[in-house]
Amino acid sequence: MSQKALWSGRFKESLSKAALTFSSSIEFDKQLYQEDIAGSIAHVEMLSACRIITAAEARKIRNTLKAIQKEIETGKFPLGDEEEDIHLAIEQRLIQKIGPVGGKLHTARSRNDQIALDERLFLRTAVREIQKLITHLQRVLLYKSEKYFGVLMPGYTHVQRAQPVLLAHHLLAYVSMLERDYERLGDCLKRSNKSPLGAAALAGTSFPIDRMKTAKKLGFDGIVENSIDAVSDRDYILEFVSACSILAMHLSRMAEEFVLWSTKEFAFVQISDAYTTGSSIMPQKKNPDIAELIRGKTGSVYGNLMNLLTMMKALPLAYNRDMQEDKAPLFETVKTVRTSLFVMTHMLVHTEFRKEHLEEELRNDFTSATDVADYLVRKGLPFREAHEITGRIVSYCIDHRMYFGNLDLETLKTFSKHFEADIFDFLLPRQSVEQKKSAGSTSPQEVKKQIVHWTRVLKARK
Ligand code: ARG
Prior knowledge:
The structure is a single chain. The protein is mainly α. Helix content is 59%, strand content 4%. The protein is built from 18 helices and four strands. α3 (33-49) crosses α6, α7 runs parallel beside α18 (444-460) and α11 (289-312) runs antiparallel to α12. The radius of gyration is 30 Å and the shape is elongated. The two termini are 44 Å apart. Bound molecules: arginine.
């Protein structure tokens, strides 16, 4: 702060250098300069419309704020760490440029409603950007589902092979998961897109302001009614970071599959070189670092949520300076989630699924065992009995180094008299998938329905 602080009237001494460094938030909140200026312009125009300041004063302030925005963008007004925060830095600059009339901007306003406003504006943009990135990832998943439609893979539970599924079905599970993330972010926006401006410090103001006017100008759906709530609340950030934590968890699970599936042990995918790295010592290595980092960065998003919840948990109403600590976790969450979504999408574009290998793996296994049991059930056996018999067949095959494909009817009949020639319509993985009847199952018809559904939904989305 090169000049006296704007709040220095009742102080005999200025803030110590150490206290300023400790308390300054400019390092983080300078990111909010656009929101801060947009909010100030809306406020000053409202002040003039309500005849609290003159039209000429408002014009002067507005034009200068626009000029300050340009100065910031061209580096002519560097926001250094000697500033306390973005709000004071801009106001100070305004007064420096046009003199005391600049001081009228802060009529009927406080930094308390100002910061809540800036954050809500910032969040709105962030939510829309993240929703776009989610949509891109969903589109690539859908594209891959169509490209590999019909390709089988082992479905897993407990990371043990369970039942054959279509690869498309597995990929579309992620589309559904991401859709909930998209909706959760939208829900959070519904609640957060309200203007706190005009709450002033906490009690409102005696000036005849029009809160709805600024709310409308700034594209809000209404105002945060209670002025104390308006400046005390950070639920909008908590909800947003919660939604982002779930989203990051989904990305992390997907990343984990990339890591597993690119191992020699699985060998389901081939990630392009552009999204993998080498080892500084082991020349043969190709490591899935990008997927690992998406998985790893999830921790910082969860950490941000815990940070914010803990910071808020015992704050008396209304504003407390503790709340300034919300910036770093908020901005960090937005950055992490955006970059993770972006690289995940590109990595997926540049990943090939090894279809021959996926299907080959299924042939050498027992993933259609449930179908064998179901077959016996259709022949009249209780499921538990059918389960037991099929288990014995699996054990027999393991002892004799065989798979279902090697069994003949004679052998099968030694396990149950109910086996007939039609069992051979159920033994193979593809038959298992094709025999599925239930809604949302992995049968090609049901998966096709999902593809049609998501094509329509994602096409309609901007
Ligand atoms: N830099 C502050 C924050 O981010 C702005 C609000 C400060 N208000 C105050 N009365 N000190 O929370």
